[in-house]
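Quick one, tokens below. Sequence please?
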């Protein structure tokens, strides 16, 4: 039996695993995501690191976050249903299925 295609698949997947672990180790979280989660101090630390890495020492690093609204579970469920209807509705169903099963 000639099963070299399995080795080709494994060797082709190794770089993606290596880059995934390197990215997880060395990349910072998004400052906007951290701020939206209420972690303003962490967001400021990431911005300071980015500022130093870019060599810009004159940028203003001040920001304020918008007040958080309480999650409306029923509203978000209705929005999710609306989005699914748009993707899986008659106008987009063929494109959605082709995209899902050909990638």
């Amino acid at each position: 039996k000639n099963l070299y295609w399995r080795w080709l698949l494994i060797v082709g997947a190794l770089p993606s695993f290596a880059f995934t672990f390197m990215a997880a180790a060395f990349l910072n979280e998004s400052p906007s995501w951290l701020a939206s989660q209420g972690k303003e101090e962490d967001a400021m630390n990431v911005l300071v690191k980015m500022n130093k890495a870019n060599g810009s020492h004159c940028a203003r690093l001040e920001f304020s976050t918008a007040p958080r609204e309480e999650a409306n579970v029923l509203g978000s469920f209705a929005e999710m249903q609306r989005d699914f209807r748009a993707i899986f509705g008659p106008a987009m169903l063929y494109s959605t299925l082709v995209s899902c099963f050909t990638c």
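The chain has a mean pLDDT of 83. The helical segments are 4-26, 31-36, 40-53, 73-88, 93-102.
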